[in-house]
Design brief:
single chain, alpha+beta, 8-stranded mixed β-sheet, 14 helices, binds 4-amino-1,4-dioxobutan-2-aminium adenosine-5'-monophosphate, binds magnesium ion
Protein backbone atom coordinates (compact mmCIF):
# COMPACT_ATOMS: atom_id res chain seq x y z
CA UNK A 1 0.00 0.00 0.00
CA UNK A 2 1.28 3.44 -0.84
CA UNK A 3 1.46 6.12 1.83
CA UNK A 4 0.65 8.75 -0.77
CA UNK A 5 -2.68 10.49 -0.50
CA UNK A 6 -3.75 12.63 -3.41
CA UNK A 7 -3.36 15.77 -1.41
CA UNK A 8 -1.38 15.48 1.77
CA UNK A 9 0.10 12.79 3.93
CA UNK A 10 0.20 13.17 7.69
CA UNK A 11 3.56 12.89 9.38
CA UNK A 12 2.42 10.01 11.61
CA UNK A 13 1.65 7.99 8.50
CA UNK A 14 4.94 8.79 6.77
CA UNK A 15 6.98 7.79 9.82
CA UNK A 16 4.93 4.66 10.38
CA UNK A 17 5.02 3.49 6.77
CA UNK A 18 8.72 4.20 6.45
CA UNK A 19 8.49 3.80 2.67
CA UNK A 20 11.37 5.20 0.67
CA UNK A 21 11.34 7.05 -2.66
CA UNK A 22 7.72 8.12 -2.41
CA UNK A 23 6.79 11.59 -3.54
CA UNK A 24 4.61 13.22 -0.93
CA UNK A 25 3.13 16.48 0.22
CA UNK A 26 3.38 17.32 3.94
CA UNK A 27 1.92 20.31 5.68
CA UNK A 28 2.58 21.54 9.17
CA UNK A 29 4.19 24.05 11.48
CA UNK A 30 7.91 24.70 11.67
CA UNK A 31 9.38 23.83 15.06
CA UNK A 32 12.97 24.77 14.24
CA UNK A 33 15.22 25.50 11.30
CA UNK A 34 18.97 25.11 11.41
CA UNK A 35 21.64 24.82 8.77
CA UNK A 36 24.26 26.63 6.78
CA UNK A 37 24.90 27.98 3.32
CA UNK A 38 24.74 24.59 1.69
CA UNK A 39 21.83 22.93 3.48
CA UNK A 40 18.87 23.65 5.80
CA UNK A 41 17.15 21.23 8.18
CA UNK A 42 13.57 22.00 9.09
CA UNK A 43 11.80 20.16 11.92
CA UNK A 44 8.16 20.03 10.87
CA UNK A 45 5.25 18.99 13.07
CA UNK A 46 1.61 18.59 12.08
CA UNK A 47 0.20 17.36 15.39
CA UNK A 48 -0.48 13.85 14.13
CA UNK A 49 2.42 12.54 16.24
CA UNK A 50 4.86 13.74 18.86
CA UNK A 51 7.66 13.25 16.31
CA UNK A 52 8.83 15.93 13.94
CA UNK A 53 9.61 15.17 10.33
CA UNK A 54 12.97 16.40 9.10
CA UNK A 55 12.82 18.37 5.85
CA UNK A 56 16.09 18.88 4.02
CA UNK A 57 16.09 22.09 1.99
CA UNK A 58 18.93 22.71 -0.43
CA UNK A 59 19.38 26.45 -1.16
CA UNK A 60 20.02 25.54 -4.78
CA UNK A 61 16.52 24.09 -4.98
CA UNK A 62 14.57 26.28 -2.55
CA UNK A 63 14.91 30.02 -3.08
CA UNK A 64 16.41 32.28 -0.47
CA UNK A 65 13.20 34.28 -0.39
CA UNK A 66 11.29 31.20 0.79
CA UNK A 67 14.00 29.98 3.13
CA UNK A 68 14.12 33.19 5.09
CA UNK A 69 10.40 32.97 5.80
CA UNK A 70 10.76 29.48 7.28
CA UNK A 71 10.90 30.45 10.94
CA UNK A 72 9.67 28.77 14.10
CA UNK A 73 5.88 28.93 14.09
CA UNK A 74 5.43 29.42 10.34
CA UNK A 75 3.17 27.02 8.45
CA UNK A 76 4.43 25.44 5.25
CA UNK A 77 3.53 22.94 2.59
CA UNK A 78 6.36 20.77 1.33
CA UNK A 79 6.50 18.63 -1.77
CA UNK A 80 9.39 16.21 -1.72
CA UNK A 81 10.76 12.73 -1.65
CA UNK A 82 11.04 10.34 1.30
CA UNK A 83 14.64 9.16 1.70
CA UNK A 84 16.64 7.27 4.31
CA UNK A 85 18.06 9.84 6.69
CA UNK A 86 21.81 10.42 6.71
CA UNK A 87 21.66 11.92 10.19
CA UNK A 88 20.95 10.60 13.65
CA UNK A 89 17.55 10.69 15.32
CA UNK A 90 15.28 9.75 12.43
CA UNK A 91 15.04 6.92 9.96
CA UNK A 92 13.55 8.91 7.12
CA UNK A 93 13.59 12.52 6.02
CA UNK A 94 12.17 14.53 3.14
CA UNK A 95 14.27 16.05 0.41
CA UNK A 96 12.25 19.14 -0.47
CA UNK A 97 11.50 19.82 -4.12
CA UNK A 98 9.21 22.80 -3.53
CA UNK A 99 8.14 24.60 -0.37
CA UNK A 100 5.17 26.90 -0.17
CA UNK A 101 4.78 29.32 2.76
CA UNK A 102 1.20 29.08 4.05
CA UNK A 103 1.57 31.48 6.95
CA UNK A 104 4.56 33.37 8.25
CA UNK A 105 5.44 33.92 11.93
CA UNK A 106 7.52 36.94 12.87
CA UNK A 107 10.47 35.44 14.76
CA UNK A 108 10.73 38.58 16.90
CA UNK A 109 7.13 38.30 18.06
CA UNK A 110 6.11 34.63 18.00
CA UNK A 111 5.62 33.72 21.69
CA UNK A 112 6.61 30.06 21.38
CA UNK A 113 10.35 30.19 21.00
CA UNK A 114 12.19 26.88 20.61
CA UNK A 115 13.17 26.70 24.29
CA UNK A 116 11.58 25.50 27.52
CA UNK A 117 8.61 27.58 28.65
CA UNK A 118 6.93 27.29 32.05
CA UNK A 119 3.46 25.73 32.18
CA UNK A 120 2.21 28.94 33.80
CA UNK A 121 3.37 30.98 30.83
CA UNK A 122 1.86 28.47 28.40
CA UNK A 123 -1.50 28.77 30.19
CA UNK A 124 -1.49 32.46 29.28
CA UNK A 125 -1.07 31.53 25.62
CA UNK A 126 -3.47 28.60 25.62
CA UNK A 127 -4.43 29.55 22.05
CA UNK A 128 -0.96 28.41 20.96
CA UNK A 129 0.11 25.89 23.56
CA UNK A 130 -1.21 22.87 21.64
CA UNK A 131 1.72 23.51 19.29
CA UNK A 132 4.16 22.37 21.98
CA UNK A 133 5.17 18.73 22.34
CA UNK A 134 3.81 18.53 25.89
CA UNK A 135 0.34 19.83 25.13
CA UNK A 136 -0.08 18.07 21.83
CA UNK A 137 0.78 14.82 23.66
CA UNK A 138 -1.74 15.61 26.39
CA UNK A 139 -4.52 16.38 23.91
CA UNK A 140 -3.86 13.30 21.80
CA UNK A 141 -4.05 11.20 24.97
CA UNK A 142 -7.24 13.03 25.94
CA UNK A 143 -8.77 11.96 22.64
CA UNK A 144 -7.61 8.37 23.14
CA UNK A 145 -9.12 8.26 26.64
CA UNK A 146 -12.42 9.67 25.44
CA UNK A 147 -12.56 7.11 22.64
CA UNK A 148 -11.65 4.30 25.05
CA UNK A 149 -14.45 5.30 27.42
CA UNK A 150 -17.01 4.89 24.66
CA UNK A 151 -15.40 1.67 23.46
CA UNK A 152 -15.42 0.16 26.95
CA UNK A 153 -19.10 0.82 27.53
CA UNK A 154 -20.15 0.00 23.99
CA UNK A 155 -18.47 -3.42 24.22
CA UNK A 156 -20.38 -4.06 27.44
CA UNK A 157 -23.74 -3.18 25.90
CA UNK A 158 -24.18 0.12 27.76
CA UNK A 159 -26.06 2.95 26.05
CA UNK A 160 -24.72 6.48 25.95
CA UNK A 161 -27.30 8.98 27.22
CA UNK A 162 -27.00 12.70 26.64
CA UNK A 163 -28.11 14.31 29.89
CA UNK A 164 -29.30 17.92 29.71
CA UNK A 165 -26.80 20.66 30.42
CA UNK A 166 -29.41 23.19 31.54
CA UNK A 167 -31.37 21.87 34.52
CA UNK A 168 -33.70 23.01 37.24
CA UNK A 169 -32.32 20.62 39.85
CA UNK A 170 -29.22 20.43 42.01
CA UNK A 171 -28.21 16.77 41.72
CA UNK A 172 -25.55 16.95 44.41
CA UNK A 173 -27.54 19.23 46.71
CA UNK A 174 -24.44 21.29 47.38
CA UNK A 175 -25.77 24.54 45.90
CA UNK A 176 -22.70 25.20 43.78
CA UNK A 177 -24.45 26.07 40.54
CA UNK A 178 -24.11 28.62 37.77
CA UNK A 179 -27.40 30.31 37.06
CA UNK A 180 -28.75 30.34 33.50
CA UNK A 181 -30.97 33.35 32.87
CA UNK A 182 -32.00 35.85 30.22
CA UNK A 183 -33.43 38.34 32.72
CA UNK A 184 -32.11 41.88 32.73
CA UNK A 185 -29.49 41.93 35.51
CA UNK A 186 -30.02 45.65 36.23
CA UNK A 187 -33.78 45.65 36.34
CA UNK A 188 -35.18 42.11 36.67
CA UNK A 189 -38.93 41.50 37.02
CA UNK A 190 -39.97 41.14 40.67
CA UNK A 191 -42.83 39.23 42.33
CA UNK A 192 -45.15 40.45 45.12
CA UNK A 193 -42.51 39.66 47.73
CA UNK A 194 -39.93 41.80 45.92
CA UNK A 195 -37.91 38.76 44.82
CA UNK A 196 -36.66 38.20 41.27
CA UNK A 197 -39.54 36.61 39.38
CA UNK A 198 -38.05 33.63 37.56
CA UNK A 199 -41.52 32.74 36.26
CA UNK A 200 -40.77 35.49 33.73
CA UNK A 201 -37.41 33.96 32.81
CA UNK A 202 -36.79 31.97 29.61
CA UNK A 203 -37.83 28.59 31.04
CA UNK A 204 -40.47 29.99 33.38
CA UNK A 205 -38.43 28.77 36.36
CA UNK A 206 -34.97 29.00 37.88
CA UNK A 207 -32.39 27.09 35.87
CA UNK A 208 -28.70 26.28 36.21
CA UNK A 209 -25.86 24.53 34.45
CA UNK A 210 -25.85 20.92 35.58
CA UNK A 211 -23.44 19.71 38.27
CA UNK A 212 -23.99 16.06 37.25
CA UNK A 213 -25.97 14.00 34.76
CA UNK A 214 -26.66 11.35 37.38
CA UNK A 215 -30.32 11.94 38.11
CA UNK A 216 -31.23 11.75 34.44
CA UNK A 217 -28.92 8.75 33.97
CA UNK A 218 -30.87 7.01 36.75
CA UNK A 219 -34.12 7.56 34.87
CA UNK A 220 -32.56 6.02 31.77
CA UNK A 221 -31.03 3.09 33.67
CA UNK A 222 -34.48 2.27 35.04
CA UNK A 223 -35.53 1.60 31.46
CA UNK A 224 -32.41 0.63 29.48
CA UNK A 225 -30.67 -1.19 32.38
CA UNK A 226 -27.11 -0.06 31.73
CA UNK A 227 -26.30 3.45 30.54
CA UNK A 228 -23.63 6.11 30.85
CA UNK A 229 -23.33 9.83 30.33
CA UNK A 230 -20.14 11.60 29.31
CA UNK A 231 -20.64 15.31 29.28
CA UNK A 232 -19.56 18.65 30.65
CA UNK A 233 -20.53 19.50 34.23
CA UNK A 234 -20.22 22.78 36.05
CA UNK A 235 -19.48 23.71 39.63
CA UNK A 236 -19.40 27.20 41.02
CA UNK A 237 -17.26 26.16 43.97
CA UNK A 238 -14.50 28.58 44.76
CA UNK A 239 -11.76 25.93 44.97
CA UNK A 240 -8.62 27.29 43.42
CA UNK A 241 -6.68 24.02 43.58
CA UNK A 242 -4.66 21.97 41.12
CA UNK A 243 -7.49 19.40 41.00
CA UNK A 244 -10.63 21.53 40.60
CA UNK A 245 -12.20 23.08 37.53
CA UNK A 246 -15.41 25.09 37.29
CA UNK A 247 -16.17 23.24 34.03
CA UNK A 248 -15.10 19.62 33.81
CA UNK A 249 -16.16 16.46 32.02
CA UNK A 250 -17.60 13.52 33.84
CA UNK A 251 -18.31 9.92 32.91
CA UNK A 252 -21.35 8.67 34.81
CA UNK A 253 -22.44 5.06 34.34
CA UNK A 254 -25.69 4.02 35.99
CA UNK A 255 -26.78 0.39 36.25
CA UNK A 256 -30.06 -1.22 37.24
CA UNK A 257 -29.77 -4.36 39.39
CA UNK A 258 -26.24 -3.47 40.58
CA UNK A 259 -25.34 -3.54 44.27
CA UNK A 260 -22.38 -1.54 45.57
CA UNK A 261 -19.96 -4.47 45.04
CA UNK A 262 -20.93 -4.68 41.35
CA UNK A 263 -20.48 -0.93 41.10
CA UNK A 264 -16.96 -1.15 42.55
CA UNK A 265 -16.07 -4.03 40.22
CA UNK A 266 -17.16 -2.01 37.21
CA UNK A 267 -15.29 1.14 38.28
CA UNK A 268 -12.11 -0.82 38.90
CA UNK A 269 -12.41 -2.58 35.55
CA UNK A 270 -13.03 0.74 33.76
CA UNK A 271 -10.00 2.45 35.32
CA UNK A 272 -7.74 -0.48 34.55
CA UNK A 273 -9.06 -0.66 31.01
CA UNK A 274 -8.44 3.04 30.39
CA UNK A 275 -4.93 3.03 31.81
CA UNK A 276 -4.13 -0.10 29.87
CA UNK A 277 -5.53 1.47 26.71
CA UNK A 278 -3.19 4.42 27.15
CA UNK A 279 -0.20 2.12 27.70
CA UNK A 280 -1.04 0.13 24.59
CA UNK A 281 -2.08 2.93 22.25
CA UNK A 282 -0.32 6.12 23.36
CA UNK A 283 3.23 4.76 23.61
CA UNK A 284 5.11 7.64 21.96
CA UNK A 285 3.25 10.34 23.84
CA UNK A 286 3.54 8.51 27.16
CA UNK A 287 7.25 7.94 26.62
CA UNK A 288 7.66 11.68 26.06
CA UNK A 289 5.64 12.55 29.18
CA UNK A 290 7.47 9.88 31.17
CA UNK A 291 10.77 11.53 30.27
CA UNK A 292 9.33 14.93 31.03
CA UNK A 293 8.27 13.69 34.48
CA UNK A 294 11.74 12.34 35.21
CA UNK A 295 13.27 15.71 34.26
CA UNK A 296 10.79 17.59 36.44
CA UNK A 297 11.56 15.31 39.37
CA UNK A 298 15.23 16.20 39.16
CA UNK A 299 14.34 19.78 40.09
CA UNK A 300 12.18 18.76 43.02
CA UNK A 301 13.09 18.25 46.66
CA UNK A 302 13.75 14.62 47.55
CA UNK A 303 10.50 14.19 49.50
CA UNK A 304 8.41 15.63 46.65
CA UNK A 305 9.81 13.34 43.99
CA UNK A 306 7.69 10.52 42.62
CA UNK A 307 8.82 7.13 43.83
CA UNK A 308 7.75 5.64 40.52
CA UNK A 309 8.00 7.03 37.00
CA UNK A 310 4.80 7.82 35.10
CA UNK A 311 4.80 4.57 33.15
CA UNK A 312 5.55 2.63 36.33
CA UNK A 313 2.64 4.34 38.07
CA UNK A 314 0.33 3.38 35.20
CA UNK A 315 1.49 -0.24 35.22
CA UNK A 316 1.02 -0.26 38.96
CA UNK A 317 -2.68 0.48 38.55
CA UNK A 318 -3.23 -2.14 35.88
CA UNK A 319 -1.35 -4.79 37.86
CA UNK A 320 -2.78 -4.32 41.38
CA UNK A 321 -6.22 -5.05 42.75
CA UNK A 322 -7.60 -1.99 44.50
CA UNK A 323 -7.88 -2.13 48.30
CA UNK A 324 -11.47 -1.98 49.58
CA UNK A 325 -12.13 -0.72 53.10
CA UNK A 326 -14.90 1.23 54.75
CA UNK A 327 -14.77 4.79 56.02
CA UNK A 328 -14.76 3.70 59.67
CA UNK A 329 -11.66 1.54 59.14
CA UNK A 330 -9.99 4.37 57.22
CA UNK A 331 -10.61 6.83 60.05
CA UNK A 332 -9.00 4.40 62.51
CA UNK A 333 -5.92 4.09 60.29
CA UNK A 334 -5.66 7.84 59.87
CA UNK A 335 -6.33 8.64 63.54
CA UNK A 336 -3.65 6.24 64.72
CA UNK A 337 -1.10 7.16 62.06
CA UNK A 338 2.22 8.65 63.09
CA UNK A 339 1.40 11.43 60.63
CA UNK A 340 -1.68 12.42 62.57
CA UNK A 341 0.03 12.12 65.94
CA UNK A 342 2.93 14.28 64.77
CA UNK A 343 0.36 16.82 63.51
CA UNK A 344 1.56 16.57 59.93
CA UNK A 345 -1.97 16.87 58.50
CA UNK A 346 -3.28 20.38 57.95
CA UNK A 347 -6.63 19.02 59.11
CA UNK A 348 -5.96 16.63 62.03
CA UNK A 349 -8.25 13.59 62.22
CA UNK A 350 -10.02 13.70 65.55
CA UNK A 351 -13.41 12.05 65.34
CA UNK A 352 -15.53 9.76 63.25
CA UNK A 353 -17.73 11.79 60.95
CA UNK A 354 -15.25 14.30 59.56
CA UNK A 355 -14.97 14.63 55.82
CA UNK A 356 -11.66 13.47 54.36
CA UNK A 357 -9.37 16.02 52.74
CA UNK A 358 -7.18 15.09 49.80
CA UNK A 359 -4.14 14.96 52.14
CA UNK A 360 -5.89 12.13 54.04
CA UNK A 361 -6.90 10.34 50.85
CA UNK A 362 -3.38 10.54 49.52
CA UNK A 363 -1.93 9.34 52.81
CA UNK A 364 -4.03 6.17 52.62
CA UNK A 365 -3.06 5.51 49.00
CA UNK A 366 0.55 6.66 48.89
CA UNK A 367 1.85 6.00 52.39
CA UNK A 368 -0.33 3.38 54.02
CA UNK A 369 -1.57 0.93 51.39
CA UNK A 370 0.57 1.95 48.43
CA UNK A 371 -2.28 0.87 46.18
CA UNK A 372 -5.45 2.51 44.83
CA UNK A 373 -8.10 2.41 47.54
CA UNK A 374 -11.90 2.18 47.39
CA UNK A 375 -13.49 3.67 50.50
CA UNK A 376 -17.09 2.70 51.24
CA UNK A 377 -19.92 3.42 53.66
CA UNK A 378 -19.34 7.06 54.54
CA UNK A 379 -21.34 8.94 57.19
CA UNK A 380 -24.61 10.05 55.65
CA UNK A 381 -24.06 13.66 56.76
CA UNK A 382 -21.16 14.17 54.36
CA UNK A 383 -22.80 12.53 51.35
CA UNK A 384 -25.62 13.33 48.93
CA UNK A 385 -29.30 12.61 49.56
CA UNK A 386 -29.63 9.86 46.95
CA UNK A 387 -27.24 7.34 48.52
CA UNK A 388 -28.69 4.12 49.92
CA UNK A 389 -28.98 4.19 53.69
CA UNK A 390 -27.39 1.39 55.69
CA UNK A 391 -29.09 -0.47 58.55
CA UNK A 392 -26.91 1.28 61.14
CA UNK A 393 -28.79 4.54 60.50
CA UNK A 394 -25.47 6.40 60.32
CA UNK A 395 -23.79 5.46 57.07
CA UNK A 396 -24.67 5.23 53.38
CA UNK A 397 -23.55 2.89 50.58
CA UNK A 398 -21.10 5.34 49.10
CA UNK A 399 -17.84 4.52 47.39
CA UNK A 400 -14.96 6.84 46.54
CA UNK A 401 -11.92 5.65 44.61
CA UNK A 402 -8.64 7.23 45.68
CA UNK A 403 -5.60 7.38 43.40
CA UNK A 404 -1.94 8.23 44.01
CA UNK A 405 -1.11 11.87 43.38
CA UNK A 406 -4.78 12.68 42.85
CA UNK A 407 -6.92 11.69 45.82
CA UNK A 408 -10.56 11.18 44.79
CA UNK A 409 -10.90 10.17 41.15
CA UNK A 410 -14.31 8.45 41.35
CA UNK A 411 -17.33 9.13 43.55
CA UNK A 412 -20.37 6.89 43.48
CA UNK A 413 -22.89 4.85 45.42
CA UNK A 414 -25.71 2.40 45.47
CA UNK A 415 -28.84 4.53 45.16
CA UNK A 416 -31.72 4.72 47.61
CA UNK A 417 -34.42 2.83 45.75
CA UNK A 418 -36.95 2.74 48.64
CA UNK A 419 -39.49 5.53 48.21
CA UNK A 420 -40.18 6.12 51.90
CA UNK A 421 -36.51 6.19 52.88
CA UNK A 422 -35.68 8.57 50.07
CA UNK A 423 -38.49 10.97 50.92
CA UNK A 424 -37.47 10.93 54.56
CA UNK A 425 -33.81 11.67 53.76
CA UNK A 426 -34.78 14.48 51.40
CA UNK A 427 -36.89 16.03 54.13
CA UNK A 428 -33.97 15.81 56.57
CA UNK A 429 -31.73 17.51 54.03
CA UNK A 430 -34.37 20.11 53.13
CA UNK A 431 -34.54 19.05 49.50
CA UNK A 432 -37.79 20.03 47.85
CA UNK A 433 -39.90 16.96 47.03
CA UNK A 434 -41.85 18.85 44.40
CA UNK A 435 -38.72 19.84 42.50
CA UNK A 436 -37.76 16.18 42.17
CA UNK A 437 -41.24 14.69 41.70
CA UNK A 438 -40.08 12.87 38.55
CA UNK A 439 -37.11 11.34 40.34
CA UNK A 440 -39.36 10.12 43.14
CA UNK A 441 -41.82 8.56 40.70
CA UNK A 442 -39.16 6.09 39.55
CA UNK A 443 -39.22 4.77 43.13
CA UNK A 444 -42.98 4.44 42.98
CA UNK A 445 -43.25 2.60 39.70
CA UNK A 446 -41.10 -0.48 39.27
CA UNK A 447 -38.22 0.59 41.47
CA UNK A 448 -35.14 -1.66 41.51
CA UNK A 449 -31.80 -1.66 43.32
CA UNK A 450 -29.33 0.31 41.21
CA UNK A 451 -25.92 1.92 41.42
CA UNK A 452 -23.60 4.25 39.58
CA UNK A 453 -20.56 6.45 39.84
CA UNK A 454 -18.87 9.49 38.38
CA UNK A 455 -15.33 9.47 37.03
CA UNK A 456 -13.83 12.94 36.68
CA UNK A 457 -12.33 12.92 33.18
CA UNK A 458 -9.67 15.54 33.96
CA UNK A 459 -8.68 13.75 37.17
CA UNK A 460 -8.18 10.64 35.03
CA UNK A 461 -6.14 12.75 32.60
CA UNK A 462 -3.98 14.05 35.45
CA UNK A 463 -3.17 10.50 36.41
CA UNK A 464 -2.55 9.20 32.91
CA UNK A 465 -0.36 12.10 31.76
CA UNK A 466 1.41 12.78 35.06
CA UNK A 467 0.70 16.50 34.65
CA UNK A 468 0.55 18.29 38.00
CA UNK A 469 -2.22 20.81 37.38
CA UNK A 470 -5.73 20.14 36.11
CA UNK A 471 -5.54 23.37 34.07
CA UNK A 472 -3.03 21.59 31.84
CA UNK A 473 -5.13 18.58 30.82
CA UNK A 474 -8.13 20.43 29.35
CA UNK A 475 -7.65 22.71 26.32
CA UNK A 476 -9.24 25.85 27.78
CA UNK A 477 -9.69 25.64 31.56
CA UNK A 478 -12.39 27.51 33.45
CA UNK A 479 -11.42 28.37 37.01
CA UNK A 480 -12.24 31.22 39.39
CA UNK A 481 -11.33 34.53 37.69
CA UNK A 482 -10.45 32.82 34.42
CA UNK A 483 -12.58 32.14 31.37
CA UNK A 484 -10.15 33.28 28.69
CA UNK A 485 -10.20 31.82 25.17
O1 LIG B 1 -18.02 13.04 43.76
P1 LIG B 1 -18.82 13.81 42.77
O2 LIG B 1 -19.27 15.17 43.16
O3 LIG B 1 -20.04 12.87 42.39
C1 LIG B 1 -21.07 13.16 41.56
O4 LIG B 1 -21.20 14.16 40.91
C2 LIG B 1 -22.02 12.00 41.39
N1 LIG B 1 -23.26 12.53 40.81
C3 LIG B 1 -21.40 10.96 40.52
C4 LIG B 1 -22.29 9.76 40.33
O5 LIG B 1 -22.45 8.99 41.24
N2 LIG B 1 -22.86 9.60 39.16
O6 LIG B 1 -17.98 13.93 41.41
C5 LIG B 1 -17.53 12.78 40.75
C6 LIG B 1 -16.10 12.95 40.29
C7 LIG B 1 -15.10 13.17 41.42
O7 LIG B 1 -14.72 11.94 41.99
C8 LIG B 1 -13.98 13.85 40.70
O8 LIG B 1 -13.19 12.92 39.98
C9 LIG B 1 -14.71 14.71 39.69
O9 LIG B 1 -15.97 14.13 39.49
N3 LIG B 1 -14.87 16.10 40.15
C10 LIG B 1 -14.17 17.14 39.67
N4 LIG B 1 -13.20 17.21 38.73
C11 LIG B 1 -12.69 18.43 38.46
N5 LIG B 1 -13.10 19.57 39.05
C12 LIG B 1 -14.08 19.55 39.99
N6 LIG B 1 -14.50 20.70 40.55
C13 LIG B 1 -14.66 18.30 40.34
N7 LIG B 1 -15.63 17.90 41.20
C14 LIG B 1 -15.74 16.58 41.06
MG1 LIG C 1 -17.15 13.18 45.57
Amino acid sequence: MSVVDLKRTKIAKILQANELDQEIIVKGWVRTKRGNKSVNFIALNDGSTIHNLQIVADPEVISDDILKKINTGASISVKGKVVASQGQGQRVEIIAQTIEILGTADPEKFPLQPKKHTLEFLREIAHLRARTSTFSAVFRIRHAMSFAVHQFFHQKGFFNIHAPIITGSDAEGAGEMFRVTVLDPINPPKNDKGEVDYKKDFFGKETNLTVSGQLEAELAALALSEVYTFGPTFRAENSNTSRHLAEFWMIEPEMAFYALEDNMDLAEELLQYLVNYALTNCGDDLEFLNQRGLEEDKNKKQEERNELSLVERLRFVTENKFIRINYTEAIEILKNSAYNKKKKFNYPIEAWGTDLQSEHERYLVEKHFKKPVILTDYPKEIKAFYMRQNEDGKTVRAMDILFPGIGEIVGGSQREERHDKLVQRMAEMKIDEEELWWYLETRKYGTVPHSGFGLGFERLMLFVTGMGNIRDVIPFPRTPDNAAF
